[in-house]
Specification:
Order of helices and strands: HEHEHEHEEHEHEHEHEE
Radius of gyration: 19 Å
Largest sheet: 3 strands, parallel
Number of helices: 8
Shape: elongated
Helix content: 25-40%
Strand content: 15-25%
């Protein structure tokens, strides 16, 4: 399933159905529910949370407040939820970063499995490799060829060290032998802002958040990171078919 905002809004009903209690139990929720997004506003995580939060507010009759707590590759916001009262009124929107962090960081301020109760899988989304228009490339092959002539001079931005976007870029480098410069930010929104400004040369972004910038000509899409072409961006080739066989890097949410 390729994810669109419509898919996420439709899945809000599923989330609500998942969080139910017996009729004899106290009515829940009894107060506003906080939905923590461990990334800054403006990215796909924020879009998902606000779409689902609106639908859940309507269904539950209680306000769902989206609380952006970005930083440290989602660790800061995740810690906030881990240390909140376990009364069901604090939810966490997780992404693949939740699984990545436990494998890359020696010590986290929470236990990734024990400190959380899973509710539901939301879906997955493709990411698009986008470059600044000033970069003279229109394909992954051209990007790789240019990077080979400019080792350690082509920079890509990410939503933070150890995040999925960081690993997407690292996989591109390791799969082709090119030497890239990684520039981490506190979220994908500022990472894309600096890409538009020309401070870095490329990044990976969801079709949903990158579409306005692509349409305005401020970003150029050259490939999608799914194993087969995505129905969301049908005109884009995959990175795998563009010269890196086996390349596949999806983002998932729950």
């Amino acid at each position: 399933m390729s994810v669109s905002l419509y898919h996420f809004l439709s899945l809000a009903a599923l989330v609500g159905a998942t969080i139910t209690y017996p009729a004899s139990a106290q009515t829940w929720p009894t107060k506003p529910v906080r939905l923590v997004v461990p990334f800054p506003p403006g990215g796909i995580n924020d879009v998902i949370a606000r779409g689902i939060g609106q639908r859940l507010s309507e269904q539950w009759g209680q306000q769902v407040v989206v609380d952006n707590r970005g930083g440290a590759g989602s660790v800061i916001g995740t810690e906030v939820v881990a240390k909140s009262p376990p009364d069901g009124h604090t939810l966490l929107l997780i992404s693949v970063a939740h699984a990545i962090n436990v494998t890359l960081q020696r010590k986290l301020p929470y236990e990734s499995v024990r400190d959380f109760s899973p509710l539901t899988y939301i879906g997955w989304a493709p990411f698009v490799l986008v470059v600044h228009p000033s970069l003279p490339v229109r394909s992954v092959k051209e990007l790789v060829a240019l990077a080979k002539t400019r080792p350690d001079q082509i920079a890509f931005s990410s939503s933070g060290s150890g995040t999925s976007v960081h690993l997407m870029g690292a996989m591109l480098g390791s799969g082709t032998g090119i030497k890239l410069v990684h520039v981490p930010y506190k979220g994908i929104a500022p990472a894309i802002t600096d890409l538009i400004g020309g401070q870095v040369q490329f990044s990976f972004a969801s079709p949903l958040t990158s579409a306005p910038h692509v349409k305005s000509g401020r970003l150029r899409p050259i490939a999608v990171n799914t194993s087969t072409r995505s129905p969301t961006v049908q005109d884009l080739p995959t990175i795998a078919e563009s010269g890196i066989p086996g390349y596949r890097a999806l983002a998932w949410y729950g």
